Amino acid sequence: MFHGSALGIIYFLSVICSLQAQLLEGLYCGKDNCYDILEVTRDASKNEIAKNYRRLAKLYHPDLHRTKEEKLKAEEQFKIIATAYEILKDEESRADYDYMLDNPDAYYAHYYRYYRRRVAPKYYSSWQRYDTAIKYFMTVPKYRNRALDIAKQDGLLHVDKRNRKSKSEQKEELDRIIQKVIEDKMDIKGAYAKPTLFDILWVQLILLPYTIAKYFYWYFSWIWNHTILKKPLSEEEKLYVIRKYMKLGHHQFESLDEEKKQEYLDHKLWVKENFEEWKLEEEERLKKQLAENTKYKQYRRYMKTHGVGRMTFDDS
């Protein structure tokens, strides 16, 4: 009995270590070394890093390769190179990365250092996007009129003949009411969704043990239900598999129309073979569209003549 308990504890600890390792794999350049990717040493200067990035980016730019297989491989490597350069070009992010290389066991410290640069700006930009979406819906007659109807039904519009407010003040008050109704009633999904407390970094860090445990439970539930018991997937699970095949983020997929999601379900894209066939058809359709696009033809001619320049990043 003691032997069995010991094995169970060892297995549990190995799983936790594996999950922690997976956390680190999702940071920076994953299992690869950012310096090795850019073919530089740790004491390389900023100019040396930029120079090697430009050389490798030109070598692996997808538009400079002909066959589909070569383009896919080049695109994958191009993303890896771009990620490595993004990390090493900034002095602070490079210092954080060096700290991880020197202290590989400090899981939580690495998680915090990595995501503090990404989550905090994203949280505030999410509020800006949400505010932009609300203001946009306020200008669309369809949504504005609907909000006015709801405001009238809820008794939010008070008509007072003795109201001495100016027209501009009355308009501001009306806009505030319409904005409040849209915020309360409209379910905005995707990248423009309203941010929550769970988007704040320190909240995520506090909940990290729970998040790991939840993932652990979900992972083994999936294996038990669908690999061992062969239970059919629910609609939500089918959409999850489709999203993973498409390599879309949660917000990206949520922002899709319900009709589009239903189309994916109708094509049974959660089945790998169906998805691969659908993907090829979509690629062929896009190729035909691009072949007829004058601007794309000009771009292709420019790339053949001049090659790729420093298109996406600034060394300053």
Automatic annotation (TrEMBL):
<keyword id="KW-0472">Membrane</keyword>
<keyword id="KW-0812">Transmembrane</keyword>
<dbReference type="InterPro" id="IPR018253">
    <property type="entry name" value="DnaJ_domain_CS"/>
</dbReference>
<dbReference type="InterPro" id="IPR001623">
    <property type="entry name" value="DnaJ_domain"/>
</dbReference>
<protein>
    <submittedName>
        <fullName>DnaJ domain</fullName>
    </submittedName>
</protein>
<comment type="similarity">
    <text>Belongs to the DNAJC25 family.</text>
</comment>
<dbReference type="InterPro" id="IPR036869">
    <property type="entry name" value="J_dom_sf"/>
</dbReference>
<keyword id="KW-0143">Chaperone</keyword>
<dbReference type="GO" id="GO:0006457">
    <property type="term" value="P:protein folding"/>
</dbReference>
<keyword id="KW-0732">Signal</keyword>
<feature type="domain" description="J">
    <location>
        <begin position="33"/>
        <end position="101"/>
    </location>
</feature>
<dbReference type="Pfam" id="PF00226">
    <property type="entry name" value="DnaJ"/>
</dbReference>
<dbReference type="GO" id="GO:0005789">
    <property type="term" value="C:endoplasmic reticulum membrane"/>
</dbReference>
<dbReference type="InterPro" id="IPR044632">
    <property type="entry name" value="DNAJC25-like"/>
</dbReference>
<keyword id="KW-1133">Transmembrane helix</keyword>
<feature type="signal peptide">
    <location>
        <begin position="1"/>
        <end position="21"/>
    </location>
</feature>
